[in-house]
Amino acid sequence: MAMAMAMKLRFLPSYEHRFMSTPPPSSKPWCFSPTKLMIKIKSQTQSLQFKASSKKNRRPENVDGEFFVDHTCIDCDTCRWMAPYEGGKEMGASLSASSMEVFTRVDGMSVVSKQPSCQDEHLKALQALLSCPTSSIHTEKPAHNILEVQKTFPIPIDVERIPGVYHCGYHSEKSYGAASYLIVHPEGNILIDSPRYTERLACNIENMGGARYMFLTHRDDVADHQKWSERLSCERILHSTEVEASTNNVETKLNGCGPWSLNDDIQIIHTPGHTEVLSQQLDSVAMLLELEFEWMIPGHGRKAVYKDVEEKNSSIKAFLAAKQHTGYF
């Protein structure tokens, strides 16, 4: 399941972008994996348990200092990949305080394991704070530069290797913290899935040219799509098998197995993955062997960057072999 989710978005340099949606075939009923359903129930229980009494209670696992995480964390991993340690780590070497991650995972939730020690770390920690879907990250005192940090969204993924591709931030609890993206394109910008709606982010996106399309990869990550549609007047695209009551009014409903071309250099690829049928999940992953790309940028999880197509295919083949051996994702 996690791999299928991670495979939904792929971006290639020079506007050679391809997007993948993961609706199940119409002959198969929609089904959540037991693991994912269990996680959602757990997170709801945690939210109810701590909402009234400890919204800003500091988890004891946090180190002392400015930033901390409270008990409402849903372990979506957003802060941990948004504010990573970028330095090298030698196998077996102990980590100094300066080389530790700002956010790490302890007992199924994020904590602050090291306070930011430079301007860049502080910026990334505040970006993670604003992007946390449950507002579980706090500072002891209001950050004096929070308004300036808000202006940094959407955040460029890599201005040199994939210019024009941005991470929107402001993840939504409605989509369990899924990431959304903005592609700046000469024929009209494209939102990939829905971030949490905020006035500041809406203004920033409008200043970048707004959005002509909003491509919704699947039903789980639609979040505040209606608010964004009304604000940006963008055309929403969703596969027909993913349409529910809340998305019944999307402008374009895709049918069949595709692929579909959004314009000359953007293609939508159908990769069914939200299913408990292992063979179907593996078939969706195997489809990627036929495509040329070097970047995978997921809605859930961390991006993968390959030096070339050969490395990409080698990685995918190893993954397929491992999953065929274990018999589960």
From TrEMBL:
InterPro entries: RibonucZ/Hydroxyglut_hydro. Coiled coil: none annotated. It comes from the Eukaryota. It holds the Pfam family Fer4_13. PANTHER family: METALLO-BETA-LACTAMASE FAMILY PROTEIN, METALLO-BETA-LACTAMASE-RELATED. This is Metallo-beta-lactamase domain-containing protein. It comes from Cynara cardunculus var. scolymus (Globe artichoke).
